[in-house]
Structures are given as C-alpha cells and as structure tokens.
Amino acid sequence: MGDRPQCPPVKTAQQPDPVCCSALAGQPACCVPIKEKRAAGPTPDADVLEKLRRGYERLQLSSSTSLLRKHLTRELFDRLKVKMTQHGSSLLDVVQSGFQHYDSNVGVYAPDADAYSVFSQLFDPIIAEYHGFGPTDVHPPLDWGNPGTLQDLDPENKYIRSTRVRCGRSIAGYPFNPMMTKELYKQMEKEASEVLSQLDGVHAGKYETLRGMNPRYQKQLINDHYLFKEGDRFLIAAKSCEHWPIGRGIFMNEDKTFLVWVGEEDHLRIISMQMGGHLGEVYKRMVDGVNKIGRKLSFVRHPRLGFLTFCPTNLGTTVRASVMIRLPIIGRDMAQLEALAERYNLQVRGSEGEHTASADGSYDISNKRRLGITEFQAVHEMYSGLREMIYLEELRSQL
Ligand SMILES: Nc1ncnc2c1ncn2[C@@H]1O[C@H](COP(=O)(O)OP(=O)(O)OP(=O)(O)O)[C@@H](O)[C@H]1O
Ligand SMILES: NC(=[NH2+])NCCC[C@H](N)C(=O)O
C-alpha cells in the first residue's frame, strides 16, 4: 500500500489526524491515511492562479470544441479557481491538458479521487454530456451478464479483423498518476506484477517491465496493438507520465489474448483481444481475468460513480469493447460513418488508437458510454450497434 489514500481520509473529534474511512467503520483498511499535505493553504498560490487566468483567456480565444471549453463558463471558472482538494490539487491540475491541447475532445482529468467531488460542478456536466449520466444518477452495481449470449459479430470473417474488450482499475491505496511518486510506482508495479504472475489457466503469463525493455521489441508490441504508446501528449500535459518508465509494464499470456497494462493512464488496464469478431469469447476472457485479479487486489469504487479512473470518460464500468473493422461502403465517408455511429452510441477511432486517423481503411469502433449502465449493457450496446452497421454495409453492397 502507498503512503497516500485513494479515498477521502476521515477526521473525528477523538481522532484529529486523518484515518482510513473503512477502518473507522471497523472494517479492514482500504487506504493508508495521508501523511503530508501538498498544499499549505486552503487556496492555490498566486502562480497557479495566474496560470489559470492566462490559460482560461487563451482557451476562450481558441477554436477548441472540447467539453472543457463548453462547460467551464466564466462564472464557474471564478467559483472553482480558488478551490483545492484535500490532497492539494487545484483546478489547474484538472484542466491543464485541455488548456494545452485545444484539440482535446474532453480536456479534463481528475488528479485525485477527491477532485470528482470538489470540482463536481465542472465534472458533472461533462460526464452528463459524455455518458448521459445526470448529477443525481447513481451507477448500477457490477453486472457482467452472460457473455455466452454474445455471438460472433462476423462469422464469415468479412469485416472484422480483431475484437478487444478492456476495463480500467485503480488499486486502493495509490493515488492517480499525477500524485504518484517514484516509490509508489515501484510499489504498485511490484504488487500488481506479483498478483498477475500467479494467474492460471488461459490467463497465465509473464509480466514485462518497461524499464530496460528492448526498444525494437517495445515498438513491435506497440505496432501489433498490444502495448500502450509512449508520449501521449494529453497525458503528459495532465502530468500523468512523470517518472516514466518507472512502474510501467505489460503482462501477457502466451497467446497474447489476455493482457494487463500497468501504470499507463490508470493503474491497471485489463484487456482481452483476439482475431475475428467473437465478442462473447473475448468478453468472457476479460471478465474471468478481472474476477481473478479482483480476488487478490482491492479496486477503488465510488458509491455514485462506480469504478474510479483518471479520466471521466472511463468511469463506472470502465469498459470499452471495440472491433477493428473495415466497412468499405458505409466507411467511405468518415463524417457519415461518425453520424451513423452516434446513432448507436458508438465511437469511431482510427486504426492506431485514439486521436489517430485510419491508416488502412479500417476503424476502431467501440461503445462510447461506460457510466450509468451495467458492464453487460455497455458491451451489448457495442454488440447491437455493430450488428446494425454490418447489416447496413451488407445491404448497400447488394444495391
Ligand atoms: N479491436 C481491436 N483490435 C486490435 N487492436 C485494437 C482494437 N481496439 C483497440 N486496439 C488497439 O489498442 C491500442 C490502444 O488503443 P486506445 O489507446 O485507442 O484505447 P484504449 O486502450 O481502450 O484506451 P483509451 O480509451 O484510454 O485510449 C491501440 O493500438 C489500438 O489500435
Ligand atoms: N484515453 C482517454 N481518457 N480518452 C478520453 C480523453 C482524451 C483526451 N484528454 C481528450 O480530451 O481528447
């Protein structure tokens, strides 16, 4: 466990120093009480306020279409700029990625779990627009459903190259990336890799740390879509790539159909993927893997927002189910494809991942919403949307 809490520490009259909220309730501790606070005062210092002021002015003058720009009104900005989380994060820590990159779609991250509460007036409308999850909605309990009901989306192998389902998890006891120290990264990697190395059956595999990884081998893993890229500018701006590559790595089973990313955007990204379109098989492998890991590691879950992640787009189920697909007719015009995807609550990405274009005429199409619906509903949304799209492609090819 790290030396910073993941959930808010609690103070009582008898207990002036913060204690773990679960320990206080007589349950096993789920976090380690904070030892030091980063900020001395209750408001950000003058330098932060000045950066906020300049950043906000520039964002207003930009042509950014980010959700940050849309929802951070002047009035809200003035209200939030003086606030800080109990871990010492300010509004600047929330918005710095969107302030730096005007092509952000969203533009905000939660530097710590408390930020979702302290800056809720900004997060809530962004979350509502992205997930359709209102400020008083409560995320449903975990429900994986029955993966066996999801068939092969493309039994004739005409359109889908590969299928992937991933979810994110934050390990209790560690802060989100911007507040991770070198030591915490090392501790977290050790804890995670020890658990992963004990996985059995189809999930059994090996953990490989990024430190000292052969650069050619690393590049190959990235090109083959197994490993995360290095240098994501949105994450860098959010101070999420500090101490790189310490604490970062990948676990892979022998067939490279079950993978776990450690220390990238979230503490863990648990991934199942394989060639072809059999969503049920891919989903089941991920569900079984997450359940096995969850027996050994404790994950951070918020009473209203479900599983907590660094980016608000990933909250709740944290599930993104995607296919790498070629749709030569309906995919000819990207704007038309995106409009169609929107109709089914799907998101279109390029063939090399988020913020990339399609290099070879294939697209990564996935469910967009992850919060306010169950895990099964999230995957099913992608399943039914993709079935419609493939049906349309077939229909038009016969005209
Ligand atoms: N269905 C798929 N088949 C093969 N590779 C895929 C598939 N979906 C995504 N990928 C690959 O996974 C890698 C990571 O993609 P990307 O970063 O866009 O999504 P992510 O891992 O779900 O996380 P995030 O949404 O936070 O960006 C990329 O190499 C991407 O091409
Ligand atoms: N990997 C993610 N969290 N993706 C969602 C948002 C990414 C980036 N911050 C943006 O606003 O465009």
UniProtKB/TrEMBL annotation:
One of its GO terms (cellular component) is extracellular space. Pfam families: ATP-gua_Ptrans (PF00217), ATP-gua_PtransN (PF02807). ATP binds at residues 162-166, 225, 269, 320-324, 349-354. It is an enzyme of class 2 (transferase). It comes from the Eukaryota. Keywords: ATP-binding, Kinase, Nucleotide-binding, Transferase. Its EC number is 2.7.3.3. Residues 48-132 form the Phosphagen kinase N-terminal domain. GO terms for biological process: phosphocreatine biosynthetic process. Residues 159-396 form the Phosphagen kinase C-terminal domain. One of its GO terms (molecular function) is ATP binding. PANTHER family: ARGININE KINASE 1-RELATED, ARGININE OR CREATINE KINASE. Belongs to the ATP:guanido phosphotransferase family. This is arginine kinase. It comes from Gryllus longicercus.
